[in-house]
Design brief:
Layout lengths: L3 E10 L2 E6 L2 E6 L2 H4 L8 E10 L4 E6 L2 H11 L6 H10 L2 H10 L2 H4 L7 H11 L23 H11 L4 H11 L6 H12 L2
Antiparallel strand pairs: 1-2, 1-4, 2-3, 4-5
Helix pairs in contact: 2-3, 7-8, 7-9, 8-9
Length: about 200
């Protein structure tokens, strides 16, 4: 079991990461809440991981904090929620927002996330309400620089599509929030917020 990685960030293209750990490149998938906190390419990072073995694949998921990983694992315990759905939920909603939605029984807000239907939202509320008692929310926010990376809007659209949004939806949300000087991570964050309003 791989529980934690420390290495140099080689690639970040939501939701995929590539981390060099002493010459071995680990491919991971991470929620946008982790992407918001990542440094620039080439900088050393520490990630908590969750390893999934399936019949057809071995997948490694990375998280900026132990709490974020714990929430991911809690989501996986809900019947009908797999790793991709859990990643989508964490990408579309911060931990404190998710906890508030579940405690308040706000299924309407949950169904706005891609791939979350009414039944899944209701199941999340019923099965997670007790598990989130006393939940400490994930701290931290993204730091953003003043410069825009080339193709930030295209990267943001690709990331939203990878998270389950239809291409037209992804383009509409990105165009609705993108401003000059925004990095792709910032555009994605704002687009995800806009999609669940």
């Amino acid at each position: 079991m791989i529980g934690r990685l420390r290495g140099r960030l080689l690639l970040k293209r939501p939701p995929d990461l590539l981390v060099d750990v002493q010459g071995v490149g680990y491919e991971l998938q991470a929620p946008m809440t982790t992407f918001y906190r990542l440094p620039e390419i080439g900088v050393e990072i520490h990630l908590y991981t969750h390893f999934v073995v399936r019949e057809d694949a071995q997948l490694l998921f990375g998280f900026a904090s132990e709490q974020e990983r714990r929430l991911f694992r809690t989501l996986l315990k809900v019947s009908g929620v797999g790793a991709k759905t859990a990643l989508t939920i964490l990408s579309g909603m911060e931990a404190d927002s998710l906890a508030r939605c579940i405690r308040a029984g706000d299924a309407e807000r949950l169904v706005k996330l891609p791939g979350i239907g009414r039944k899944t939202a209701d199941r999340l509320i019923v099965e997670m309400r007790d598990r989130l008692k006393g939940w400490e929310t994930v701290d931290g926010a993204a730091t953003s620089g003043p410069t825009e990376t080339p193709g930030a809007m295209e990267e943001a659209v690709s990331a939203l599509i990878a998270l389950g949004y239809r291409p037209q939806e992804a383009s509409r949300f990105v165009q609705g929030v993108a401003k000059e000087g925004m990095k792709s991570e910032d555009i994605i964050r704002e687009a995800l917020k806009a999609s669940i309003r």
